[in-house]
Amino acid sequence: MKTFFANTTLLLVSLGVALLVGEAGLRLTGYQPGNPLGRLINHRDDFLGYRMIPGMHESVAGPGGVYTVDTVDLGFDDGIGFRDDGITPPVDSVFIGDSFVWGYGVELRDSISERFEALTGRDAVNLGMTSWTSPTQYSRLLSRYGVPLRPRYAFMEALIDNDFGDLPNFAAWEATPTDKSYPEWMTDRVMRYEPDALSYKVRRVLYDHSALYRLFSDRVQFGIKDPEKRGEDSLVHITGDGLDMYLDPRQLQIATDQVDAGQIRLFRLALERSQEIAARNGIHLVVFIVPTKEMVYQDRFPDPALRAAVDWRYTALLQLLAETGIDHVDLLPPLRQAAAEGKQLYFQYDTHWTPLGHDVAARVLAGRPAPPRRMDP
What we know:
Elements: H1 2-28, H2 36-41, E1 44-45, E2 49-50, E3 57-62, E4 65-70, E5 91-96, H3 99-102, H4 112-120, E6 123-126, H5 135-146, E7 153-159, H6 163-175, H7 182-191, H8 198-209, H9 211-223, E8 236-240, E9 243-247, H10 250-253, H11 261-280, E10 284-290, H12 293-296, H13 304-308, H14 312-324, E11 328-330, H15 332-340, H16 355-366
Parallel strand pairs: 5-6, 5-7, 7-10, 10-11
Antiparallel strand pairs: 1-2, 3-4, 8-9
Helix pairs in contact: 4-16, 5-11, 6-11, 8-9, 11-14
């Protein structure tokens, strides 16, 4: 019996030491406990819904592995930070949008704004926001932070997947009395968390205080390769020609949904507001349309009905841009061309661009002739 207790004690001590060494090792490499995206974005802002603050450095687990996020002060006096490498005057372009512009899942050097800068030799500033973002916020970013930089171009993202639905969501957040930032409010609403449940509280404490538990949790989220274990057995797996990714047919089935007139009206108002701000300040606004992963690889679906489906949001956005006369770039054709060449433009499971996707989009925008720089009065 004494031997059993001695061996058990030795085993527990050894396990405890191993856990402490592992915890210390992770922290020394910069992998800290807690939600790095939460630390980056959960700063309430009444105007934008949330903001980042300058001087932050985070290692974020993403669909392609861990990537780093650094935020800088672009000279504004309200304490806001952006994921950019700083300004080299004169500013040629500002990029405004959600996580595609922000560069979710990729290093900053691989994001669309930095690839544009590398291709053109002209300074491009990343004003992107990750997490929940709508065209209403894009127009506010342009007015408060884009205009003072005096760019020639304002490249503004229009995301087929989220932007229509995010417009009424942001309006609902503004109308709701809450102390939470917009991402926190939306996360609770969409994920239906139960913060009072004991299991949630235990997981939250472990995640916030243990780098090892965070590593385990992140691996569960991003590391499972079997779609059935992920609860996504409806996904279509495409391989060959250099591709290995999963497509969600539900993204194309939404094409049969009834057009939402209210969302279209809000989108029009946001576009017209952005165009008015840009025109008043001598900035050339270009809206670039970001299609869904399923639209880009649509010809890979075995179901002919899905291959022929047309997303009403895509059609509505093209019509809105034509009616408002806003200069725009449809990235669907060039992305489809690159996809046909066997390029993996999106992550295996995730809906965001890989570095190749950012590069294709940046090359399309960089190929446009630059408008003349306005002269100071």
